């Protein structure tokens, strides 16, 4: 356990940051899951819409420091490729 004032402050800061980062990661996962569900359902329009909503969330995660830039870019790229390969509903 920390004894110094500065160490105690650092613990408080870390707890706050951890809470914020968990919320960010959770939000990103939710948006990605919406894209995955739209792809699985076969609805190409819903998938495109969900992807347009998910991409900015992932990039905000990069800015917030919870995702690496290349990781987010790779995930967006793979999702976009899967959405592009979908056949539109007749």
Nearest-angstrom radius of gyration? 18 Å
The total count of strands amounts to: 0
Strand content: under 5%
Number of DSSP helical runs: 3
Strand-pairing-aware structural class: mainly alpha
Which descriptor suits the 3D outline?
A: elongated
How far from one another are the termini?
Answer: 63 Å
Largest sheet: none
Order of helices and strands: HHH
Q: Which regions contain 5 or more consecutive residues with pLDDT less than 50?
A: none
Helix content range: over 70%
Average of pLDDT = 94
Description:
- This protein has 90 residues and is mostly helical.
- The protein has three helices and no strands.
- Helix 1 (5-41) runs antiparallel to helix 2 (44-64) and helix 2 (44-64) packs antiparallel against helix 3.
- The model has no long low-confidence stretch (mean pLDDT 94).
């Amino acid at each position: 356990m920390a004894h110094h004032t500065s160490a105690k402050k650092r613990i408080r800061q870390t707890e706050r940051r951890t809470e914020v980062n968990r919320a960010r990661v959770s939000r990103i996962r939710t948006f990605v899951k919406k894209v995955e569900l739209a792809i699985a359902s076969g609805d190409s329009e819903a998938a495109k819409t969900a992807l347009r909503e998910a991409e900015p969330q992932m990039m905000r995660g990069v800015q917030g420091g919870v995702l690496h830039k290349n990781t987010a870019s790779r995930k967006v790229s793979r999702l976009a490729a899967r959405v592009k390969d979908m056949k539109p509903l007749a």
